[in-house]
Amino acid sequence: MSKRVLVTRAAEQAGKLSQALSAAGFEPVEVPVLEIVPPTSFAALDAAILRFFTFNWLILTSVNAARVLGERACRLGVDLAAAQVRVAAVGRATAEAANAIGLKVELIPERYVAEGLLEAFEKAGLKEFGRQRVLLARAAATRDVIPETLKALGAAVEVVEAYRNQVPAEAAEKLRAAIARGFEVAVFTSSSSVRHLAEATEKFEPALYRLLRFLTGVGLFREPARRRFALTPLGAGLRADVPGSLRANTLMQLDEAHWPAWGQLLYSVRTGQTAFGHV
Fold first, then answer.
1. Residue 79, class by beta-carbon neighbours within 10 Å (0-12 exposed, 13-18 middle, 19+ buried)?
2. What pLDDT does 129 receive?
């Protein structure tokens, strides 16, 4: 029986990942918890494109940012390649998207996260950003690690929104159906996916993060990188596909019907009587 994998990418971007999972023997379950929509205004992005030649560096953090940049430049009649701006891209897919709009990418980090890009700048000997003008095209409501670090190094960083991520209207219903059927693994390709999963399940993201940190403290998860969690060997016992799985028993014990009885645990220990008869 194939392991079921929850794929949370936007609908228009989930295809390749789902195909790769199917080819590897998994059963992908597509539940997009975010969708790509235009920013509230293209004014800032368009203004930056019209003076694109004034920048020393362009940083692209996603395929969507590259795509939108190319579309707006075409609409404005601006030849991005003619500006000779140096380009850094977070990830090879983003670099390919940049190439598709005529840009030559000079820097790709080994780790496809903001911190990885900053490490790549350092390894390339690009530590001094004094009087360097940097354009960062990205999604709205994104971490400020890159602009804050570059500003601290002396760069003049201009951040423009190329698009927004939002929770699809049908996400909560689809997610409930997927949970009811069960899945062994969930795939998140961005921090915004995690944030929107919290929204789709009507959970408060900081509280959800604190819960995951608590479960890390008791050994069920580990946090190999900030806000990224993975099961430990102990936590793996909660998976449905492992020998001696505790998943079914754990779900039963955590069912709301058992909550009053757990509150009478001391009564049961003192008397030897079932707690269910005392609630």
1. exposed
2. 66
